[in-house]
Design a protein that fits this description.
Blueprint lengths: L1 H13 L5 E5 L3 H8 L6 E8 L2 E6 L1 H13 L4 E4 L14 H8 L25 H9 L4 H10 L4 E4 L5 H9 L8 E4 L7 H8 L1
Parallel strand pairs: 5-6
Antiparallel strand pairs: 1-3, 1-4, 2-3
Helix pairs in contact: 1-4, 4-5
Length: 199
């Protein structure tokens, strides 16, 4: 819903603190141990795959975690983002965002919906769901596996980049059968040309 998108953008811009995100190339238990000393400042934001975890939080804490990981020869890299999504930094906006989300009328979906947050099919969508969606980790890798388990064979990334398709390809390097993958749009490419090529 455009109302939620606009509200989220406005509230994120108004947050008193800016943060950063970084990709860590280690498994989830390792990353959880690495961020444990920075509870309240850093959280796992995205689980892209078995060894591709994104952390999010205050700049100082994320930098300290990256330095600690580097000493243990665990690779990480900062991400170019405007704000530290899915981290404690967004906590001040959650009440207002949920209030706005509660003004929307929700209906049962007519098309099966896979939640990227839980990797579950057709969860109950309401204001509380959208609140959680801002704060909890996105489980992209699990959602991808859920799609494949249901027999989906064609993936299209909706957006101006192919970031998620690249992550999906890395997750599926050893898969027996690869789904077809295509971008809806690409940076520095003619929009209509790219859409027609994908079609």
């Amino acid at each position: 819903c455009l109302k939620l998108v606009a509200a989220r953008g406005r509230l994120m811009e108004q947050l008193p603190q800016k943060g950063v995100m970084a990709a860590v190339f280690a498994d989830e238990p390792t990353v959880k141990r690495a961020i444990a000393a920075h509870a309240g400042q850093v959280a796992i934001a995205v689980i892209n795959g078995p060894t591709n975890i994104v952390i999010s939080g205050t700049a100082a804490a994320v930098e300290a975690i990256q330095n600690d990981l580097a000493q243990r020869e665990i690779k990480s890299r900062p991400l170019d983002v405007a704000q530290a999504s899915h981290s404690p930094i967004v906590d001040p906006m959650l009440d207002e965002f949920e209030r706005i989300a509660a003004t929307i009328t929700y209906h049962e979906p007519r098309i099966a919906y896979l939640s990227g947050m839980s990797a579950q099919w057709s969860p109950q969508i309401n204001a509380h769901y959208w609140r959680q969606h801002q704060r909890q980790a996105v489980r992209f890798g699990d959602a991808l596996q859920a799609l494949l388990a249901q027999g989906y064979t064609y993936l299209v990334e909706i957006g101006r980049t192919n970031t998620l398709l690249a992550i999906a390809q890395r997750n599926l390097e050893n898969a027996d059968v690869l789904p077809e993958m295509a971008s809806s749009l690409r940076k520095n490419q003619d929009d209509w040309g790219q859409l027609l090529q994908t079609l």
